[in-house]
Amino acid sequence: MEDTATLGKSISSNPTMVRSDNVESLHVRKHSGEKAIRLLDQLRIRDRNLRIRSDNDHILIPVSRSLSESETKSILAELEDAQFIESSFSRKTRYAHSLSEALEEKLSPSLLELLPHSIDMIGTVAIVELPEELHDNREIVGEGIMQINRNIRTVLAKAGPVSSQVRTRELSIIAGEKVTETTHREQGLSFAVDVSKVYFSPRLSFERSRVATQVRENEMVVDMFAGVGPFAVQIAANCRKVIVYAIDINPYAVRYLLRNVAINRVKGKVIGVLGDSRFIIPNHLSNIADRVIMNLPGEALRYVETACLALKSEGGILHCYSFSNKPQLTEEASQELLSALKRAHREPDEMITRVVKSTAPHQWQIAVDVKVK
Q: Which CATH class is domain 99-179?
């Protein structure tokens, strides 16, 4: 994930405890072992799914099929003091390269096609969006995610969209522990977060880094929808002298924000503010900011006038985020922001737009950076 999951982990819990039935094997002295393995590999008859065993001064090499009499004689003629015997072997750890491969024996082909291709990994918590057709098999999917991502302790399924002013969504536990608080690491920083109480997207890691690297020393920044502080803390960590006012209406988010400020040692550079930006900025933070971050897609355009109040009289930079499902994604977003700036009686000087990520089929999150006069 990209801010998305890498699904190529082991799916065997304890390979040394899983043994095969007796199979034919080549019993050969250790000093001839390398030659024997090479010979069986050349003939393509070594069973690579089973582990080679050691037996005192001999090794046992599993064979994948029954051999003809002539094949047996040919192999034994090449090796000193060798014989074919039956023996049991431990199976090798099997690796899955996708969630579909991990669950291929548990779900039908039609259901395998519906498995998600991306999963949000937030510390030890995985969040997945499942179609309704997989609802009855959600625990199986959750266990599969945990099997191939060994650091994951809890798997949650989205049960609704991000909604309300505090930007939370309903989630249901489908596998693992009933623990929704975790610590997420990003760009060398640590963020404490409870995904059931606050919004956090690991997919915005690059975007947060992109904005943070634009901030210059001695800037004053207002983060209007700060959440647990990923933009604010990263900016403060990147700059020696900077002040970031990090505002959020969700009291849980501000509580975690203050924890993350302490964890990442940026006290004095990030100031957490609980409240609605529409009231905080006009009353306490007007005309102070060189830069304003507006990471509330779907709602940010309604706050442009408030954001402009935060900017210094000589102007500054807005980082505004919105959703788009139109063919001309960035063009629509930039036009909407231009209209909002006009209503706020501000003029754009420079504007850059980019697609941040896909959020749903035929819907994308767009970032617009605009320098405002």
A: alpha beta
